[in-house]
Specification:
With 144 residues, the protein is α/β, with parallel strands linked by helices. The protein has one domain: 60s Ribosomal Protein L30, Chain: A. It has 3 helices and 7 strands, in the order αβββαβαβββ. Strands 3, 4, 5, 6 and 7 form a 5-stranded mixed beta sheet that branches. It has a two-stranded antiparallel sheet with strand order 1-2. α2 crosses α3. It is globular, with a radius of gyration of 16 Å. The N and C termini lie far apart (37 Å). One of its GO terms (molecular function) is magnesium ion binding. This is RusA-like resolvase. It comes from Longimycelium tulufanense.
């Protein structure tokens, strides 16, 4: 059973073939937070802030490895926060959480660095749904 699980996790045969390999796949990481753990409006003590950043980085790196995201030359990332009510929210506030997630992808060796030439960070999105939560979408980009 263990061998079967390991084989299934690494299997890329479900992706449609391309001229030189497989078509890029978009990865969606469901982060275990109902709301952003770090926002621009928070005024945490430096030690508390550092702890939150380390936790987000570790969680993102662990999820990226578990999902099986291969090393990518370049990628685009997008943070999506699903909320359950219609209160007004500012998407700019989510940028500190997005930055920590991007660092987590670097920690997982998905990309070499989170500089703009290797990682495009889109503005975070806020959507409405029945279940609150955060998701990080990682999309491979062409080129190296």
């Amino acid at each position: 059973m263990t061998n079967q699980t390991a084989t299934t996790r690494g299997d890329r045969s479900a992706a449609p073939p391309r001229a030189h390999g497989y078509a890029p796949r978009t990865y969606r990481l469901a982060l275990p937070y109902p709301r952003p753990p770090l926002t621009a409006n928070q005024r945490h003590h430096w030690a508390r802030r550092a702890h939150l950043i380390a936790e987000i980085r570790h969680t993102t790196a662990t999820l990226a490895r578990a999902t099986g995201i291969p090393p990518l030359g370049r990628c685009a990332v997008r943070l999506i926060w699903t909320v359950t009510d219609r209160r007004r929210r500012d998407a700019d506030n989510l940028v500190p959480t997005l930055k920590a997630c991007a660092d987590g992808l670097v920690d997982a060796r998905v990309v070499a660095d989170d500089t703009p030439d290797l990682m495009v960070k889109h503005m975070p999105e806020i959507t409405h749904g029945h279940r609150a939560g955060l998701a990080l979408v990682v999309e491979p980009l062409g080129g190296t």
